[in-house]
Amino acid sequence: MKTKLIGKNSEQLAAIAADCGLRPFVGRQIAEWLYVKRVGSWDRMTNISKDSKARLQESCELGTSGPAGSAVSSDGTVKYLFTVGEHNAVEAVMIPDEDRKTLCVSSQAGCRMGCRFCMTGRQGWHGNLDAGDILNQFVSIPGSQELTNAVFMGMGEPLDNYEAVSQAIDILTSDKGFGWSPKRITLSTIGVLPVLERFLDGQRCHLAVSLHNPFPDERLGMMPVQKAWPLEDIVALLRRYDFSGQRRVSFEYTMFSGWNDTKRHADALVRLLSGLECRVNLIRFHKIPDFPYDCAPAVRMEEFRDRLTKHGVVCTIRASRGEDILAACGMLAGQRS
Fold this sequence. Notes:
alpha/beta, DNA polymerase, domain 1, 10-stranded mixed beta sheet, 11 helices, 14 strands, 31% helix, elongated
């Protein structure tokens, strides 16, 4: 099996070039073509000699591949389907918003976490993506150079595949990679302890925590991971870190009518987050098959937001994007049309 080059950092590519009998700078040239110029073809790497390419191609492949399909929403959101390995498929979503173009990227085929309200979680786990699979979602979509931000909020739990996710983030933020500021990247997690601590110590990206209910017993009924990694322990860990500077932490709160949208829940959320520099994002629930709850009415979401704001918790209602193409929060399933 040939070595896949995308997903390797500049130093690793230099070592691969040396193993092929080439000068290490050839590997650094490949890094520039892959991550800066976003070129997915040997032929377009014009400053690498034919002999050098021939040597590399004996044992290596770029590993880039375009989307297997796409769908465009009425609001401009675009969902891309990528084939991973022989049997799996994942989806990435490009969300345009004025001068921003954010890519919602997947890190796993399926998910192990089992949240009842998430289409990805309900399909189970089918495998981890490697760093190359993750970065291919960035480099292989049309208009890749126009991307301004990334959110690890697609299919999978990023901290359940942290080695590959961390490698991808390192390349995204490296001067010899994409050269992005960590402030352009947000990682969303259900709160996998102690991997969350590794992320907080090792990366400077923004963090989003899937919360959804402040009461442990109610949260457990919808999110089985509450038993392994209690929300209270996650918040206690976050209190040890400084989020008053450039790195932010937010809490994702999907609103369900009759389950987590009452004043009782709002007040418990205020108590849970009191004194923590953070933001709460309220998310409209998008109806999925065989699930008993609907989204909370808009007026109740506004009342919930206002109650949190009144008690000093910064709270916003996130605009829903891409629902008509099954690209909104909780709707990704890696399905071929």
